[in-house]
Amino acid sequence: MHPTGPRQESPGTAGFASGSAAGPDGPFDAFGLSGAPGTDAFWAAAPVCRPSGDGGWVTLFRWRGAPAVVEFESWSDPVPLARWRDTDCWYAEVRMPARLRVTYRFRTDDGAYADPRNPVGAGGERSIAATPDAPPQPHWPAVDAADVLPLPRARVRWASARLGGRRTVRIHPVGGGGPVVLLLDGDDWLHLHPAVTAFDAAYAAGEMPAATLVFVPAKDRLAEFGCRPEWWESVRDELLPLLTEAEVPLDLSTLAVAGQSLGGLSAMYAALEFPELVRRVACQSPSFWWAPGAEELPDPLGGPVGGAIAARLRERPAPAGLRIAFDLGEHETRMRPHCELVESLTGQAGATVRISRSAAGHDRAGWRHALLRDVAWALA
């Protein structure tokens, strides 16, 4: 649904649930819907869950109109929806594990759509589902497909001689501004998830120090984030001097970087290879499977555990003074060995390390809480 790197999981838990109660209104009775299929009450209800009986959940997804499938973000293969009798109601009962928050959308022959019955969205064509036992995500407001997220007014145009192309980098002072926090894949945090609102709310609640957020977009994620020194040389020599022209309060003496997936890999690489620039990192689901050429393999995650970052940490210790927060989705089983090895080697090298696990797969819907919490910790 958006390029976060190679597909991580296909756990086999998604699909039609078995053993559904079949009353006069078919499988819908078991979910406690108040109206018969096709009525206003039936369509008014948001996606609903019921216990699966094995510690997980079954979630009911409904679509009105043409045939469709429900697609999930890096968690499961698409699930086709079945038609209820001769109505315009299409539905799927999808098995989900305990503690899961996942992005999804409906795909039809004419496009992709957010769930019109779900008030929690991520951009114009995505929605977010959470099992009842998924922990809350304070400070992130519910936004639906029609909402336009606020954009910071301060911006700079970054025309990079090294990287090529032009980018619009937006800048937002939280609490009046302070240490600079580079948010890699910044356009996702501007247009899909309301990071500006969430960081401001966390600051107002006393859970975030003052900071200046810099939303840095990527043009070619694999080329730019795959441990490429030119990216960070360009940040140091081109982007950071531009920020001083934006007339936004900022403190360049402390620079933190937050990244996810390949962005998390790049943030960690910067801390190891550019310690004079980056010493504070928050990385979620970092792609520590990466090594040169790994993305071209039939199984990119099947190479040496920890990839290039683990090899670098074995060759020479991490620079002194690093403060690094690692987070990984609980359902990212194939990512776990790669991340656990790098986490261990980083701690052994003397860095100050925080390790956590989120109730999600490889998905920004699950990374959101860790982003706020870990940036605050990194700046502490």
Average residue-wise pLDDT: 91
Uncertain runs with pLDDT below 50, 5 residues or more?
1-13, 18-22
N-to-C span: 34 Å
Rg over alpha carbons = 22 Å
Number of helices: 9
| Beta-strand proportion | 25-35%
Give the beta-strand count. Answer: 17
Provide the structure class. Answer: alpha/beta
Write out the strand line-up for the largest beta sheet, numbering strands in chain order: 10-11-13-12-14-15-16-17
Globally, the shape reads: globular
Secondary-structure element pattern, one letter each: HEEEEEEEEEEEEHHEHHEHEHEHEH
- Estimate percent helicity: 10-25%
Largest sheet: 8 strands, mixed
Task: Tell me the layout of helices and strands.
Elements: H1 40-44, E1 48-51, E2 57-64, E3 69-72, E4 79-80, E5 82-83, E6 89-96, E7 101-108, E8 111-113, E9 127-130, E10 154-159, E11 166-174, E12 178-184, H2 186-191, H3 195-204, E13 211-216, H4 221-225, H5 229-243, E14 250-260, H6 262-273, E15 280-284, H7 307-315, E16 323-329, H8 336-348, E17 352-358, H9 364-379
Parallel strand pairs: 12-13, 12-14, 14-15, 15-16, 16-17
Antiparallel strand pairs: 1-2, 2-6, 3-4, 3-7, 5-6, 7-8, 7-9, 10-11, 11-13
Helix pairs in contact: 7-8
